UniProtKB/TrEMBL annotation:
Organism annotation: Actinocorallia aurantiaca
Protein name (database record): NADH-quinone oxidoreductase subunit J
Subcellular location: Cell membrane
Coiled-coil portions: none
Catalysed reaction, written as an equation: a quinone + NADH + 5 H(+)(in) = a quinol + NAD(+) + 4 H(+)(out)
Length: 197
């Protein structure tokens, strides 16, 4: 194996290992940090493939924006920082079976489709000009299909989040506790100073 192949394989192992830790850890902040490691390893793999533009986009958008957004969401929603049993759904075995089956299908397709095919890595092959020309000339149809798919997922997420009523959130309602009573609470008298007429 050549040096680029060794580096690419090592980065792939790091990316897969950190991805497994993202979905197996019981600490939400640790999951976000392992996601940073996975995205960083992917950026390194793009650099090995001489796709510098894609690597920097990976770092700026995913590591610099998406993960920071997740961390801000964790802080603003006051999610539990320590270990949380709610992060474990109890479906580890079915999830593991699905993951292994998907990996087996992908590896089989790649091995049978490419076999011993090799790509000559040339400097500048992953520049913005080459990438834009490839996307909007050769891959424009899959690009648009993916855009529609992401739009459908966004609309579905909005519909699911709006479908829940205010009483389903489990939060306490702040306001009047009874008709015509302002700021009263159970056990307290609505008359000033507790004096009757």
């Amino acid at each position: 194996m050549t040096t680029p192949e060794i580096v690419f394989t090592a980065l792939g192992v790091v990316a897969v290992g950190s991805g497994v830790l993202v979905v197996t850890t019981k600490q939400l902040v640790h999951a976000a940090l392992w996601l940073v490691v996975s995205f960083g390893a992917l950026a390194g793999m793009y650099l090995v493939l001489t796709a510098e533009f894609v690597a920097w986009v990976q770092v700026l958008i995913y590591v610099g924006a998406i993960v920071v957004l997740l961390l801000f969401g964790i802080m603003l929603t006051r999610a539990p920082i320590g270990p949380s049993e709610g992060l474990d759904s109890g479906n580890r075995l079915p999830a593991l079976a699905v993951a292994l089956g998907t990996a087996a299908v992908l590896v089989t397709l790649l091995v049978r489709g490419f076999k011993d095919a090799r790509i000559d890595l040339k400097p500048g092959g992953g520049s913005a000009d080459a990438l834009g020309e490839a996307i909007f000339r050769e891959w424009v149809l899959p690009f648009e299909v993916l855009s529609v798919l992401l739009l459908a997922a966004l609309v579905g997420a909005i519909v699911l989040s709006k479908g829940r009523g205010p009483n389903d959130r489990g939060g306490a309602r702040i306001g009047r506790s009874g008709p015509g009573v302002r700021g009263s609470s159970p056990g307290s008298s609505s008359r000033p100073n507790g004096k009757g007429r």
